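Lay summary

Proteins are chains of building blocks that fold into shapes. Our project writes down both the chain and a compact code for its shape. Here are two examples, one after the other.
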Amino acid sequence: MDLNELFSSIETTMLARFRESGFIQHSGDKGENREEILREFLENHLPKRYGVTKGEVITKDGKRSHAMDIIIYDAVNCPVLYSGKTSILPVEGVYGIIEVKSSLSKAEFEDAAAKIESFKRLAPRDLGVIATREYVTVQRASRPFGIILGYQLSNNSLESLKNNWQEQCFKVHDVNFFCNIVCVLGEGLLRHENVNLTKGEKHLLIDTDEFVNLVLTTHKRINNSEPNDEIIIRIITEGEKDKTFGRLFTYLLIMLTRMKLNVPDLGRYIDPDLPIAIIKE
């Protein structure tokens, strides 16, 4: 059995468990079961430096997010401020979120996309200070990701979801707050691609920072009347059927390994006038 076959088997099992959960009548319990299937897999298979939970994030200004289905956070440096049925974490320690839907209709897609936008708007752009024996440096944390996962379509298609996503991107306008990946198990996934027509190259475009930097660089060159490559950003449909979850998990790992977070500074949550914490390495 190769890796594709392994992930295909995992996806089949996840979908079977999802169908079994349909026997539950209470919609809230059914929803929790649906999320737990994916949460359980991620808890068992992501590297242990990544924590997985359900809950909310809070900012040092006291702003709170909605309750999010799956939060992936820095399990080494991020404190869990409240641990119960719903966890509460400082936003600086969160890599991203996954919104899970039983059936991904246009309405459910728009609901999940709006939640991802709302979460991403809470993410700080503060600098973190890191000190070693040799030097002191600063770093700006990576922008978080947001993924939408559906267990099945709802009288629609991946192509219609692609159109829904394009409409949502035009409405949001700012690429900071776009969804990173849209996925339907057993069907396929949607993601962005950067096509450089000048160089004859195309690249995976799933990382929020890379997307933002590409747009900012293009605008800067236009404003400065500098030569600019001819670039197209488009949504790609990967109709991978039973290989969909393997692709999603791989893309998730790619995003996580590229990201770097600051350590949450809880002192400034309690008193914003306290000096910025310096992290020693």
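And here is the second example, written the same way.
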Amino acid sequence: MPFQELFDETLDINSTENYELSIQVSPDGLSFCLLDSIRNKYVMLRSFGAEENKYFNADQISELLRNDDFLIKRFKRINCVMPSSKFTLVPTALYDPGKKDEYFGFNHNLEEDNIILADKTHDPDAFLVFSISRSISDLIRSIYPKVHPHHHIKVLLEHTSFIRKSVNGYYIHAHIERDFFNLFIFNNNNLKFCNSFAYRNISDILYYVMNVFNNLGIKQEETIHFSGMTEKYDDLSSGFSLYIRNIKYTEPAGNFTFSYVFNDTELHRFINLFNVANCGL
């Protein structure tokens, strides 16, 4: 399986009660990082990815969780983010917790072995209603019973709030997962567009984004911010550079820093993992 690991020499497996654990889990893979809460510094990243065209099942994720030398320790705080392509935003003023299944059903069909959860967002003031794997959700709750799983869209919205308030006009953000991507568009800090698109290749992403641009009358001179599974100078950025002049890669933002061991890491790839520490309930 694809594996990545970074750790600072100050990392101490016997001092995990001074660390904050953030974990991201989905059938695509499992990643976690450790924040030294005394110094507010990230000191470790470990990532396990499923092989191409394959996915992790709950048993495989359970084996990773229960056999990792750090994940079985006690931590000061534990955060969890669970990416999912199926979600809908419901304004708080209209939200009824007893109807979350009904809200979800307006836009999506519930897949077998999936459950529907809700997550509160603050900007915009709404509830995210989303589906995730029941078996993976039950697994996380059995190992970390006090943890509230956050949908990755909440983490991204929290992140953009650090940036877009200082932007006049449009703020456009595309977040890339393995087989879907999310597109957010704000205008003068007001959410105008938020959706998820399945894709098979780079051309699909380019088509969907440019189609939204055309429908909303957005000029190609605007800046687009990327995060997730893309890299500088890859096929995605090369394709977009033919149509959009200004491309940026957004990095984690919050009351934390990074050890020097992250200096050569494209932090935008793990933006949800690092930023979930910013999320409250």
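What can we say about the second shape? The chain has a mean pLDDT of 93.
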